[in-house]
């Protein structure tokens, strides 16, 4: 099974592609399969159109060079190990300091002669100049990789910390980074990188755990050995392999109203990403773990066929990097069905404990609601010119602000999901927010209505009375 791992920062993205060694895989239905055989590694840097890439040897050399150089820069003293790498002819990647805000990344021609970075001279190494912010985004991407215990778990480094008393460079480097920043988020990432002194966090070789029976209690596997810092970083968050094990370590989101809102966010992520809907052997069912912000943090196939066909779904590409998860972040569970007919179905794993309610402040003045009801009806009626092709009523919840501008809409039945483009609602919403899947406006009081489009071309708009 082909596996991808992505570690993204504003100015750098590491993309790893590889396979899982089935002889070492204890559970085919792991929440997140292990990438143990690296096929290709790409490093995408801002302001450079082409990535630099190579195989296992290139990637190992890259992380060695980045980690050693970062330790030298952060400590502001020469790193003997970095010098050792620099003088080894076998090293394919090097980093050299140009000045206080520029750093030269050198990739030797053996792995870039064909097509890497536009290097048309096979005899010459590829050289890329990085500013300090780009450098530390690269450092953070490497740190995310080492925090991910499900990717090349046997790869480790032998770096020795530089004593803090030799440092004193944090404030100097912060001043160096400021003119190189391209945005506030980049500076924030660089500031986080400075807190990693004295050395990048290194993960020791992992010992494969014994296979546990279904009745035993799974134990989270620590992804790295924490360094002595006062506040745990996101990369120190334990990574668990199973949703049951994950839910034993974090709170579960069970509030019906919050689940209803998250259900929509998950649908809006998966629906546009599921582009090939014609090759499913049967309905594929998965159990999803979703964070409070809607991020998909884990999935598990409910049977072997769903596990085998995972690459026919967009789930692997939508998975949020678990190394970035916050400690004790609440998780919601959803059932996701990719049907053989090409229909996407999403619902809370255990259903709703009670009828959900619409969240946010509401307009309650009866005269205002009556006025907005008529205004919404007129707007939709004027813009609905498509001849219906559906055989059942399309039902939606539609919210508007005090001016009558659409602020949110939500399909209430499956046929409404399937035929929403035959209504004017997506165009009305996109004209305001620029996207049909943008987050709804919940910062102001809203009036909610049930809107029904009938197969006969009739339109019904009534004040909202709640979910049924």
Overview of the structural elements:
The chain has twelve helices and 15 strands. By secondary structure, the protein is of the alpha+beta class. The strands form four sheets. It has a four-stranded antiparallel β-sheet with strand order 1-2-3-4, covered by helices on one side. The chain has a four-stranded antiparallel β-sheet with strand order 9-8-10-11. The longest helix is centred in the N-terminal third of the chain and has 20 residues, at 56-75. The protein starts with a strand and ends in a 5-residue tail after the last strand.
* Overall helicity: 25-40%
The total count of strands amounts to: 15
Report the end-to-end length measured between terminal Cα atoms.
42 Å
Q: What is the tally of helical segments?
A: 12
Biggest sheet descriptor: 4 strands, antiparallel
Mean pLDDT: 75
Poorly predicted segments? 25-29, 81-88, 111-120, 162-241
Which percent band covers the strand fraction? 15-25%
Widest sheet, order of strands = 1-2-3-4
| SSE run | EEEEHHEEEHHHHHEEHHEEHEEHHEE
Oligomeric form of this entry? single chain
Shape: elongated
- Going by helix content, strand content and strand pairing, the class is alpha+beta
């Amino acid at each position: 099974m082909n596996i991808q791992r992505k570690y993204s920062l504003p100015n750098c993205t590491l993309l790893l592609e590889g396979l899982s060694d089935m002889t070492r895989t204890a559970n085919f239905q792991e929440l997140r399969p292990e990438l143990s055989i690296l096929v290709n590694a790409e490093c995408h840097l801002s302001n450079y159109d082409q990535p630099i890439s190579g195989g296992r040897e290139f990637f190992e050399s890259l992380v060695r060079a980045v980690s050693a150089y970062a330790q030298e820069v952060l400590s502001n003293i020469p790193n003997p190990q970095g010098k050792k790498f620099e003088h080894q002819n076998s090293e394919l990647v090097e980093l050299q300091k140009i000045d206080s805000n520029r750093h030269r990344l050198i990739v030797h021609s053996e792995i870039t002669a064909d097509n890497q970075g536009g290097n048309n001279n096979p005899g010459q190494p590829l050289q890329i100049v990085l500013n300090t912010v780009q450098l530390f985004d690269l450092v953070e991407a490497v740190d995310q990789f080492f925090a991910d215990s499900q990717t090349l778990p046997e790869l480790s480094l032998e770096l020795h910390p530089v004593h803090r008393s030799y440092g004193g460079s944090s404030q100097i480097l912060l001043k160096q980074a400021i003119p190189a920043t391209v945005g506030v988020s980049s500076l924030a990432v660089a500031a986080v990188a400075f807190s990693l002194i004295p050395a990048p966090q290194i993960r020791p070789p992992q010992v494969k755990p014994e296979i546990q029976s279904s009745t035993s209690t799974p134990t989270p596997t620590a992804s790295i050995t924490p360094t002595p810092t006062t506040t745990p970083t996101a990369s120190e968050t334990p990574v668990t392999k199973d949703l049951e094990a994950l839910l034993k370590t974090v709170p579960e989101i069970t509030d019906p109203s919050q689940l209803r809102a998250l259900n929509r966010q998950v649908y809006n992520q998966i629906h546009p990403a599921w582009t090939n809907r014609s090759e499913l052997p049967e309905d594929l069912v998965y159990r999803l773990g979703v964070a409070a912000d809607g991020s998909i943090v884990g999935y598990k196939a409910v049977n072997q066929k769903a596990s085998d066909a995972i690459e026919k779904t967009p789930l692997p590409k939508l998975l949020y990097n678990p190394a970035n998860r916050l400690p004790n972040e609440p998780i919601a569970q959803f059932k996701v069905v990719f049907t053989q007919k090409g229909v996407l179905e999403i619902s809370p794993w255990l259903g709703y404990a009670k009828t959900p309610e619409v969240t946010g402040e509401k307009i309650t003045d009866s005269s205002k609601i009556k006025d907005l009801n008529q205004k919404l009806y007129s707007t939709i009626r004027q813009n609905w010119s498509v001849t219906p092709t559906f055989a059942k009523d399309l039902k939606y919840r539609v919210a508007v602000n005090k001016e009558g501008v659409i602020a949110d809409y939500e399909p209430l039945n499956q046929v409404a999901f399937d035929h929403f483009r035959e209504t004017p609602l997506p165009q009305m919403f996109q004209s305001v927010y620029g996207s049909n899947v943008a987050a709804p406006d919940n910062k102001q009081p809203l009036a909610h209505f049930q809107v029904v489009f009938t197969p006969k071309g009739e339109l019904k708009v009534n004040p909202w009375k709640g979910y049924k």
